[in-house]
Amino acid sequence: MILSSHLSYRVLAAQEAQTLAISNKAKRLKKQGLDIVSLSVGEPDFDTPECAKQAALHAISQNFTHYTESDGIMELREAVANKFINDNDIKSVRQSTILISGGAKQCIYNVLNAICNEGDEVLIFAPYWVSYPAMVALTGATPIIIQASFEQVYKVTPLQLQAHLTINTKCVILNSPSNPTGIMYTEQEIRDLAAVLQDHDCFIISDEIYEKISFGDIKHFSPGAIESIAHRVITVNGVSKAYAMTGWRIGYMNAPEHVFKEASKVQGQSTSHPCSIAQKAALGALIGGDYDVENMRKAFSFRKQLVCDLLSTIPGIRFHIPDGAFYVFIELGSILADTGIEDDALFCSYLLDRFLLALVPGSAFGNPNSIRISFAASEQTLQKGILRLAEGISSLQNQKNV
User: Fold this and answer.
1) How far apart, in Å, are the Cα atoms of 46 and each of 43, 243, 297, 335?
2) 22, 69, 151, 227: most buried, per Cβ within 10 A?
3) Are residues 101 and 31 in the same domain?
């Protein structure tokens, strides 16, 4: 028998990602021949751009299959630096402060390990991406959750941020467009948060992985463009969402030089460097993939409207129309109480077991009594999925009324 005391307290304290757990269960059921509709997956259902594929094939034909620089190949780092300067107006970017990693997730994990010590606190805005608290816990630091309500449109206010800052605050994580809500902070809202942080000596990690997927009037804005805090901002992005390259595992970040140096050390002693072929594919995407990105964004915009129109016909649920990403975050309101379901996790289990519909409970994102729907699926799949959601809710209500 293996005693828990023989294992790492940090790993034991970290939670398994419920998004992956639900997605894996749905895949197992589908392999058994069941007609599973999964709206749980956080990845585009589009093909990788042809320019990226051809770049990868060329790299293979040229035998570009050996170790690369641990920070990433020079050409890709230069392309990323130019992207941050031209797209995001981050003036302090240099090729020498760009780190290429095995996905945006590894970028964030590298940074947290580079800056955090036991006793440090990392402020996380809820609803949050499932991995933030676990990654913080794995470093030995403490995740501090700041809850933003439905009525706040899931946006943390400057007053809330100010109230949670302490001498132990090492870092604040901002994600816009947001996973799971699809909500975006305006430039003024980001500047207002930056004003609170301006005189507080902490880092800001800006997770901008969904930057290219936006729909409304709100324009993406990077905190790294604010001169007064730029020297403490780590900007994280990658090719996974914008270019439908989740499996290629390429993320990138820009950081202050002293943070970059330590994050590079973490990567060098763990994974060495990202896949050589994938780096070339990412370079191809950044150089030639704009047309594909825009076509995908337009398709997501249409699907967003389709899903919101369908959801608006279901009584008892509440949601905000997303500004970006490819999620709708649904507040179940009185449905759980009215139907006798104890929590959102049991609600999602009921939908999967009885109606073969896979969704992710809001509790996975730090916001109980909610669910996340991904509209990274075909129109037919989305229509079938929303119909099953409506049928599931109706069935529960009918059972309660019997």
Assistant:
1) 9, 9, 11, 34
2) 22
3) no
Chain position carrying tokens 């439905």 = 150
Q: Give whole-number Cα distances, 59 to 92, 98, 286, 290, in Å.
A: 31, 22, 16, 21
- Average of per-residue pLDDT values in the chain: 94
Dihedral in degrees, nearest 10, Cα atoms 259, 167, 144, 116: 30
Reduce the DSSP state of residue 371 to 3 states and report it.
strand
CA 260 and chain centroid, separation: 21
Residues 213 and 328 in one domain: no
**Torsion angle, alpha carbons of 144, 148, 154, 155, to 10:** -80
Neighbouring C-alpha atoms within 13 Å toward the C-beta of 154: 31
pLDDT tens figures, 81-122:
999 999 999 998 999 999 999 999 999 999 999 999 999 999
In a domain, 57, yes or no: no
Q: How far apart are CA 258 and CA 261, in angstroms?
A: 5
- Non-local (6+) Cβ contacts of 53 within 8 A are 281, 284
Nearest to 244 by CA among 269, 209, 275, 218: 209
Q: What is the pLDDT of residue 10?
A: 80
Bridge partners, 144 (sequence order) = 123
What is d(CA 267, CA 274) in angstroms, rounded to the nearest whole number? Answer: 9
95 compared with 22, residue with greater pLDDT: 95
User: DSSP letter string over 108-124?
Assistant: HHHHHHHH--TT-EEEE
Same-domain status, 282 and 321: no
Domain that includes residue 348, residue range: 4-47+291-401
| Domains in the chain, number | 2
Answer yes or no: do 277 and 378 share one domain. no
Whether residue 140 is found in the same domain as residue 96: yes
> What pLDDT shows up at residue 402?
52
Q: Give one DSSP letter per residue of 52-93, joined into a string.
A: HHHHHHHHHHTT--S---TT--HHHHHHHHHHHHHHH--TT-
Radius of gyration of the chain (CA): 21
In the chain, the amino acid numbered 358 is: A
Res. 52 pLDDT band, cuts 50 70 90: very high
The reply to whether 386 and 273 lie within a common domain is no
